Amino acid sequence: MADTLYEMEGVAIGYGRPLLEDISLTIKAGEYWGIFGPNGAGKTTFVKTLLGVLKPLAGVVRRAPNLRLGYVPQLTAVRDSMPLSVRQVVELGALDLRGLPPVSEALARVGLKDLERERFGDLSGGQRQRLMVARALHRQPHALVLDEPTNGVDLITRHALRDLMRELNAEGVTLLLITHLLGEIGPEVGHFLWLDARQGLCLGGERASVLRSPDLARAYGGGLKAVDVEGETILAWEHRREEGRV
Question: Nearest Cα to 191, choosing from 29, 43, 58?
Answer without folding.
Answer: 29
